[in-house]
Write a structure and sequence with these properties.
heterodimer, A: mainly alpha, about 0% strand
Chain lengths: ~400, ~450
């Protein structure tokens, strides 16, 4: 359903703007002015998601929409914390533009799935191309970071999944090994990362990698692998949006991403602490579809190599989940005094927004039928399959 | 009261008038003066002339609104004459005559670079002249080799004769390679690009604009004729000329694009990006020789993309009198938001942003080559390196902080706003063409009619 993807994009936009607008320390007018690039980014992402759900939209137009993301991404990097923001503006702008530039060549390479796989993979920061996510995590404010990460998953996830699904032979094996190794390394490394938002970026990359692995490996009946991968993607993005909002609100009082600064910051905010824990555990739960599918694939396959790839994916998921849960417990417990003082308790609207987001994550998780492949990507994948001569 | 005679303004007006007259004459010409003669004005040749006229008109407007010191009009006149000579050389089928015209063009180009004086310009002019002389000599050497091999310096005859006498392949291939090296020097394709960053970056902006547009266009057109004439011979000699084109193009994009990213001066950065853009003409030659349709489309995009970037540079440095070194540029974009924003926008569109001339063209060209995968990688590299260069300039202009300077926030002069308006107009033209569906080159595409 196109509306489900669009709703996710709007939720990501809403959380990004809410966190940015409600950040303490600046007058409202200044906050509003600083939120303009985030608003532009939100509109572009929502437009791109809408376009992807339209059957008769060509890849050129989608590529143009993807290109537009690069401008607010540059501006958002510039508005972050210097000097990391100044240093990161160019790399982030290039990383965001690269998938768009690649996607624009997909019509010239008609019949090849690789432009879509590569463009989607770059947009979702698929391991091992996850480095720009870490850079963005250090440079961007929490709200826009969540928006940018969610936007990448929403734009690049479906084409990467749909185009990698029909891959066979050496190409499929190479991609699976590369992504699985990347997922395992990124997941394990994130568990010891000292930066909260780098962990979040790594979590996103791992979920994208798992979705692609499921599309590549999960056997079962034809089509179910893609459906599982898309459902995993949808639930993961919903969880990311919720985490970005709740963790972003905490981070807006701490001002830095270093986890050492979060000790005791929630000692006077019990509800906020519970929200942090709840959203983190719920995110781990919502991301459970892919590991389940990989476990089933590992048990069903006679191939040792496929089992190893599935195992690597599971290790990555475990590491990324551990990173999120450990970060949440570290934030929520109230022992050491935070240098910035305690964060205030959640107020009514914030509690309401958090509850709505938690319910949205549950809905995204328990109703996989919501996550139907966007029409434009379905058509592109169909054309690839048709051009390769296989049965559609 | 004495009237002040400003030679530069007079020359700028004269060049503008001459370009407009040439355009009106061109419109009345039937673009088919071949075959059989020693020179031809076919569709691509006429398109080159049109592109050159357009570049000269924009450059003249820049010279009149943003002279940026002495020598702008003289530089423009010299660069226009040099480009006309190169265009004539590209339309000449006699290799010896072509070599002479190329050499004459180089002398004029070096003179154009030197206008305005100063140590840096003189050094750049010497380098331009030196490499130009080398290009002329190399082209003459290739003509001599062809005389020895085929007994003629006529391009088409030489191609046909070499095809029928492939008994001395080493010499034949050497002759073709020498010819290609001469053209690569003219077009600033790596590894023969050394004159361009100095020559284009140091010249007055109007001269830099005209040379940056015309040099790669003329050389690529001449190369299109060479490939057309020699394709049977190259095939008979089992030469993978498409692979050669790809290698030169990739090398140029990779080297010039990477070096552009470490430049500390916006003028040199723009010059390096012009070299990268010049390399994007080569894929157009990898299609079927004789069909110049892809070249015409690529040449149109080349003119549309390059002109605004040089106009913006000229508006910034010439009219507003602002520095181009990154140390001087740091944070200046915040003081002159409109001018700096327009400047960055020209580079962004030239890099291939949607709406720019290259956005729709690149996939078309990649498909036209017949080997889209490799050329896609090249175009991707080119787009991202140019995009990174534009982002870097934006970072310097808007994000970096320089020590305080009281004179920084001085308002722009009226002349700077006029130059800004000219640049905005050129950018609008690029956007207008970029958003159109690329027209079929139709009659323009016929290379050497009847040849």
């Amino acid at each position: 359903m196109r509306l489900a993807w669009l709703a996710l994009a709007l939720a990501a936009a809403a959380q990004g703007l809410a966190v940015e607008l409600s950040a303490p320390g600046r007058p409202l007018a200044r906050r509003a002015a600083r939120s303009l690039p985030a608003l532009v980014l939100a509109l572009v992402i929502a437009w791109s998601v809408w376009l992807a759900g339209t059957p008769d939209v060509g890849l050129e137009r989608l590529a143009a929409a993807w290109w537009l993301v690069a401008l607010p991404a540059f501006a958002l990097s510039a508005l972050g914390r210097p000097p990391a923001s100044t240093r990161s503006a160019v790399p982030i702008a290039v990383a965001v533009a690269a998938p768009a530039a690649l996607l624009s060549f997909a019509p010239a390479l008609a019949g090849s799935p690789w432009p879509l796989v590569a463009a989607g993979g770059l947009a979702t920061l698929l391991p091992p191309a996850h480095a720009p996510g870490a850079r963005a995590a250090e440079a961007l404010s929490p709200g826009p970071l969540g928006l940018l990460l969610a936007g990448g998953l929403l734009l690049g996830g479906p084409p990467a999944i749909l185009a990698s699904s029909p891959l066979t032979g050496l190409g499929a094996r190479s991609l699976a090994v590369l992504v699985a190794l990347g997922v395992a390394i990124v997941g394990l490394a994130s568990a010891s990362d000292s930066h909260l938002f780098r962990r979040l970026a790594a979590w996103c990359s791992v979920q994208a990698g798992l979705a692609v692995l499921v599309a590549l490996l999960a056997p079962a009946e034809p089509g179910s692998a893609v459906a599982t991968a898309l459902a995993h993607l949808g639930a993961s993005v919903a969880a990311l949006v919720a985490m970005s909002f709740v963790l972003g609100r905490v981070a807006s009082y701490v001002h830095v991403g270093d986890l050492a600064a979060y000790g005791g910051v929630l000692r006077a905010a019990v509800v906020r602490g519970q929200a942090v824990l709840a959203v983190s555990f719920l995110a781990v739960l919502a991301s459970g579809q892919a590991p389940l599918a990989l476990t089933r694939a590992a048990l069903a396959t006679p191939s040792t190599a496929t089992r190893a790839v599935c195992l690597l994916g599971l290790v990555g998921w475990l590491g990324a989940s551990l990173a999120i849960v450990l970060a949440a417990t570290r934030i929520a417990r109230g022992r050491a005094g935070a240098p910035v003082g305690p964060a205030p308790e959640m107020k009514g609207p914030e509690v309401a927004a958090t509850i709505v987001l938690l319910f949205a994550v549950m809905a995204a998780f328990v109703v996989p039928a919501l996550w139907v492949a966007p029409a434009a990507w379905s058509r592109a994948a169909f054309e690839i399959v048709a051009a390769s001569g296989a049965a559609p | 009261m004495t009237a002040r005679f400003d030679l530069d303004r007079v020359l700028a007006w004269t060049t503008l008038g001459a370009a407009l007259v040439a355009a009106s004459q061109l419109a009345g010409l039937t673009p088919q003066l071949g075959p059989g003669g020693d020179w031809t004005l076919d569709g691509p040749g006429a398109f080159f002339a049109m592109g050159l006229v357009a570049a000269i008109v924009w450059a003249a407007l820049l010279a009149l609104t943003a002279p940026g010191g002495a020598g702008a009009g003289r530089g423009l006149a010299g660069a226009s004459l040099a480009s006309a000579a190169w265009g004539a050389a590209a339309c000449t089928l006699d290799l010896a005559g072509g070599a002479l015209l190329w050499s004459a063009g180089w002398i004029l180009a070096a003179a154009a670079v030197a206008q305005g004086g100063g140590h840096e310009r003189m050094e750049a002019a010497v380098k331009t002249q030196g490499l130009g002389a080398a290009a002329g000599l190399v082209l003459l050497l290739s003509a001599a080799l062809f005389v020895g091999l085929a007994g003629t310096t006529h391009l088409l005859d030489a191609g046909a004769l070499i095809t029928s006498r492939v008994d001395s392949p080493v010499l034949a291939l050497s002759a073709v390679r020498v010819l290609l090296a001469g053209l690569a020097l003219a077009a600033a394709w790596a590894p023969f690009h050394y004159w361009a960053p100095d020559g284009l970056g140091s010249a007055t902006r109007p001269a830099g604009l005209v040379l940056a547009v015309a040099a790669p266009l003329a050389a690529s057109l001449a190369l299109a004729r060479v490939l057309f004439a020699f394709e049977p011979a190259l095939d008979a000699l089992a030469v993978n000329w498409k692979g050669g084109l790809f290698a030169v193009s990739l090398l140029t994009v990779g080297v010039a694009g990477s070096v552009a990213l470490v430049q500390k001066d916006a003028a040199r950065l723009t010059a390096y990006l012009a070299v990268v853009q010049g390399a994007e003409l080569l894929p157009a030659l990898a299609a079927r020789p004789g069909d110049a349709g892809p070249w015409v489309t690529a040449a149109g995009a080349h003119v549309l993309a390059l002109v605004p970037t040089w106009l913006a540079l000229g508006a910034w440095s010439g009219a507003a009198g602002l520095p181009t070194s990154f140390a001087g540029l740091a944070g200046r974009g915040r003081d002159h938001k409109w001018l700096a924003g327009l400047w960055v926008a020209t580079l962004v569109l030239a890099a291939g942003f949607p709406g720019g001339a290259r956005f729709a063209l690149r996939p078309q060209l990649a498909a036209a080559t017949g080997e889209p995968a490799g050329w896609t990688i090249l175009f991707l590299l080119s787009a991202l390196l140019q995009w990174a260069a534009a982002a870097r300039l934006a970072r310097v202009l808007f994000l970096e902080i320089a020590p305080g300077d009281e004179s920084r926030s001085a308002p722009l002069a009226r002349r700077a706003w006029m130059a800004w308006a000219v640049t905005a107009l050129a950018l609008g033209v690029e956007l207008w063409f970029g958003l159109q569906r690329a027209p079929d080159p139709a009659g323009w595409r016929v290379l050497l009619p009847g040849g």
